[in-house]
Amino acid sequence: MNYARFLTAVSAARKPSPIRMLTELQQRSPPSLISLAGGAPNPNTFPFQSASIQVKNGQTVTFDEAAMKRALQYSASNGIPELLTWMKNLQKNLHNPPTASYSVEKGQMDMCVTTGSQEGLCKVFEMLVNPGDNVLLDAPTYSGTLAALQPLGCNLINVPSDQHGMIPAALKEVLSQWDPSEVHKPGSTAPKILYTIPNGGNPTGASMTAERKREVYELARQYDMLIIEDDPYYFLQFEKPWAPTFLSMDTDGRIIRTDSFSKILSSGLRIGFVTGPKPLVDRVVLHIQASTMHTSTFTQLMVSQLLHSWGQEGFLQHIDRVIEFYRIQRDAMIGSADKWLKDVAEWHSPSAGMFLWMKLKSVADTQQLIMEKALEKEVLLVPGGVFMIDSSEPCPYVRAAFSLSTPEQIDEAFRRLASLIKDAL
Ligand SMILES: Cc1ncc(COP(=O)(O)O)c(CNc2cc3ccccc3n(O)c2=O)c1O
């Protein structure tokens, strides 16, 4: 793959930070090295001495004095080694990426830690998207992605989708306006990236079938596009076997995958990952060097200690407990929707994630209904317009999250929603 053609001028211009390189060189060197180089503060001046964090299974994550000094200090921009290694082993175990054994030039699988997958998405978009670029995605989509993409001045092209995700025939139709043999010509306006949320989509709850992923991948190959696989709900798939990921079928090195611990370990700790071809991950890391420098060392070490004590088996057992929780929540929401809303709304039951996407049958645009009437009835959902490429277009959908409220609260919320819809008719 020729990765240079995908980079913006800004990303291509980024150079390694000499200071950061010295820090990482020092951290790789034996203790006998005396460094007068890094402008790092002396951790002996820090007020924090140690920490002990109770884990619900009875284990404890401890930071003794030495560990605390490391946790409170700068660390490598791509992530602390032990967390990166653990995650790379998990990715290889779960997805068996073809790129894991490739040379760097061929797109060897690499990873970096990001401050939430939101940071990963933002930096990947800024690496790849120039003003005026055509970018493919299936709308409605995550509002945080729109917030990161639209200010870049690109042209977002919607690829029609349904409850099974992006529709390959629709993608083929959208792409038919370009000649695949001319996408590398200077001045070509053919899209270079496609973004999708393959599991438990936000806001639709849609999950792509393996067959559709293979068809989309083939089209990306024909038009030499990168696919950004934003997959924070991968671990919230209620049925097994989990769907094969784009990363697992990436024989070309054209997948950039973002993962997140937000929905399974903690959203406040802000731990996400970018997995992709080393030439591209390196560019994201250079951007991290020049912006946040790295994700919090303390939170990385805290999570890394937990993962190492759990092992992959323990981690996946935790995931099974999380899945069971959200399955029960999903069933409660579907039960209450059937009970209160089946005359006034329609929906598909999600097989992953934490969202139910409902179309209100007799409402052209839910914005006013939700932002005014629903608040009067003390029930809050998200009007569907915020997830559309053009948020000013009327949208009859609402997004309901089944993550936080109890089944009883969900039932009462839908009773209130049904009441306000009937009042509005
Ligand atoms: C598809 C997709 N990709 C990336 C992210 C970012 O997750 P990160 O790893 O935590 O950075 C998300 C997080 N989605 C949301 C976050 C959120 C945070 C506060 C309040 C509301 C929020 N609502 O509503 C959300 O949907 C997502 O859904």
TrEMBL record:
It catalyses: 3-phenylpyruvate + L-kynurenine = kynurenate + L-phenylalanine + H2O; 2-oxohexanoate + L-kynurenine = L-2-aminohexanoate + kynurenate + H2O; 2-oxoadipate + L-kynurenine = L-2-aminoadipate + kynurenate + H2O; 4-methyl-2-oxopentanoate + L-kynurenine = kynurenate + L-leucine + H2O. Its EC number is 2.6.1.39, 2.6.1.4, 2.6.1.63, 2.6.1.7. Coiled coil: none annotated. Pathway: Amino-acid degradation; L-lysine degradation via saccharopine pathway; glutaryl-CoA from L-lysine: step 4/6. One of its GO terms (cellular component) is mitochondrial matrix. Its cofactor is pyridoxal 5'-phosphate. This is Kynurenine/alpha-aminoadipate aminotransferase, mitochondrial. GO terms for biological process: alpha-amino acid metabolic process. Belongs to the class-I pyridoxal-phosphate-dependent aminotransferase family. The lineage of its organism: Eukaryota, Metazoa, Chordata, Craniata, Vertebrata. Keywords: Aminotransferase, Pyridoxal phosphate, Transferase. Transaminase with broad substrate specificity. Has transaminase activity towards aminoadipate, kynurenine, methionine and glutamate. Shows activity also towards tryptophan, aspartate and hydroxykynurenine. Accepts a variety of oxo-acids as amino-group acceptors, with a preference for 2-oxoglutarate, 2-oxocaproic acid, phenylpyruvate and alpha-oxo-gamma-methiol butyric acid. Can also use glyoxylate as amino-group acceptor (in vitro). PANTHER family: AMINOTRANSFERASE, KYNURENINE_ALPHA-AMINOADIPATE AMINOTRANSFERASE, MITOCHONDRIAL. SUPFAM superfamilies: PLP-dependent transferases. Residues 60-417 form the Aminotransferase class I/classII large domain. GO terms for molecular function: 2-aminoadipate transaminase activity; glycine:2-oxoglutarate aminotransferase activity; kynurenine-glyoxylate transaminase activity; kynurenine-oxoglutarate transaminase activity; methionine-glyoxylate transaminase activity; pyridoxal phosphate binding. It comes from Parambassis ranga. InterPro entries: Aminotransferase_I/II_large, Class-I_PLP-dep_aminotransf, PyrdxlP-dep_Trfase, PyrdxlP-dep_Trfase_major, PyrdxlP-dep_Trfase_small.
